[in-house]
Each structure stands twice: as structure tokens, then as C-alpha cells.
Design goal:
The structure is a single chain. With 235 residues, the chain is α+β, with helices and mostly antiparallel strands. It is built from 10 helices and 5 strands, in the order αβαβββααβαααααα. Helix 7 packs antiparallel against helix 8 and helix 7 packs parallel to helix 9. The two termini are 34 Å apart.
Length: 235
């Protein structure tokens, strides 16, 4: 359960928040939820106590989830798909100077490590879909749609060095999957083709082998120091 202190962290110290999910991916329909994701900066003095501030907060609004800045950066440096995509949402709702610097650094988080993390995440999701087919005769089609979207996004990231989350021209084909209008064997073939294209793209990807950890750490240290001294933004 979210505490009053947690609510205050999100309310008073959010540096960046955006809309994610189908609305950010270009897949929204009339019944789509509005999923909100954010980053808050816990004031540095809170870390001087025995009880540390939370690494993340779920809420206070429905479909809202926020990470503390350090945790967010850690996950992004590991090429966590959900976190990296937050940095590329076209639907930014709130941002301050620290948030703007965070967005300016989003390229520093990208590396060929994304191939492993996106592929591993996709494989786990595919196994869940296959289990649904075995148990119920059909997958959860919405989840199948989002897995196809993720695989295409990952492939394009590895090919171009840029992460784009809007599905563009694939919208109608993906929504047909969501509606269950595409057979599971065809969806499986689509997934397998995208997975192979990811593997091929990784070989000659323009992305660096590793993210720029030193640059991100410098940003985090400056931000913590500015918070400790009441200096505001790290920039």
C-alpha cells in the first residue's frame, strides 16, 4: 500500500513522467487504459537515514508507476526494455530541468546489450503465450500483439541505433492480432522471423558494445549533490 510519504515523493519530486502502453505505441483504441510512468528524485538527505527512500512507487493514481532516479538509471543501463522505452515516449506529461537532462542522455543508455535483454524478455513472454495455447487453445492476443511490437522495435533499434516505440504502419496488422483475427501458427511464424531479424541485426549494429556508464554516473552524482546543497537541477 502506498504511504503518504510515497505520495509526497511522487507529487513533489517527479522530474519526468510520461504516458506509456498502447497510447505511446500508436496502438490505442477507444477502450485503452492510460498507463503513466515516471521518475522521481528522492531528496539526498533522505538517504542519510537508516530507513532509505523507496526505489519505486506504485500509484497514487491508477495505472501509475514511478522509479527513483538511481534505480531507473540502473535498470536503463541494463537495457531493461520497459525502462528504456519510457525515455522515448512521445507523450511527456511532466518534466523539469533534471528530467530534460535525463532525456538528453537517453542515447548513453543504449548499447548492443539490448539484444540480449530484449530477446530474453521476448522469449519469456513467448513461453507464456505458448503455455496459454496448450492450456486454453489460444494465447492472450493482446500480449501476443505487444510481443510482436517489442520484437520489431528491438530489431529496428539494433539496425539503426535509435529506439522508436510508435508502431507506425504496422498498427492495423498488430490490432488484427489483438482482435484474434490472425491464426496462432501465423503469429508464431511472425515472431520467429522477427527474432531471426534481431539476431542478424545485432551482428552489424551501430550501437556501442556497452552503455556510457561513466556519463550517467556523473549525471547522478551531480544531481544528488545539487539536491543535498539545495542547488536544484544538476545541469
Amino acid at each position: 500500500m502506498i504511504t503518504p510519504a510515497d505520495k509526497a515523493l511522487v507529487r513533489d519530486h517527479t522530474v519526468y513522467s510520461c504516458v506509456m502502453g498502447s497510447r505511446a505505441f500508436g496502438l490505442a483504441t477507444d477502450g485503452s487504459d492510460t498507463d503513466r510512468r515516471g521518475v522521481f528524485l528522492a531528496p539526498t538527505p533522505l538517504f542519510w537515514r537508516f530507513d532509505k527512500p523507496p526505489t519505486h512507487v506504485e500509484g497514487p493514481a491508477d495505472e501509475q508507476f514511478s522509479w527513483e532516479l538511481e534505480r531507473f538509471c540502473e535498470l536503463a543501463l541494463r537495457a531493461n526494455p520497459n525502462v528504456l522505452e519510457c525515455l522515448h515516449s512521445p507523450l511527456v506529461e511532466r518534466i523539469d530541468a533534471t528530467g530534460r537532462e535525463l532525456l538528453s542522455l537517453r542515447g548513453a543508455f543504449l548499447s548492443r546489450q539490448a539484444h540480449e535483454t530484449f530477446a530474453r524478455y521476448a522469449l519469456g513472454q513467448r513461453r507464456k503465450l505458448e503455455a496459454d495455447v496448450r492450456q486454453h487453445g489460444a494465447p492472450r492476443w493482446k500480449h501476443a500483439m505487444h510481443l510482436l511490437r517489442l520484437l520489431a522495435s528491438s530489431r529496428d533499434l539494433l539496425r539503426t541505433g535509435e529506439l522508436t516505440i510508435d508502431v507506425g504502419a504496422d498498427r492495423e496488422a498488430l490490432l488484427a492480432v489483438k482482435r484474434g483475427e490472425v491464426g496462432w501458427p501465423e503469429v508464431e511464424q511472425w515472431m520467429s522471423r522477427l527474432a531471426a531479424e534481431n539476431d542478424a541485426a545485432a551482428t552489424g549494429s551501430p550501437l556501442p558494445a556497452e552503455p556510457d556508464r561513466a556519463r550517467i554516473e556523473d549525471f547522478l552524482i551531480r544531481t544528488r549533490r545539487a539536491s543535498a546543497t539545495g542547488g536544484g537541477s544538476a545541469g
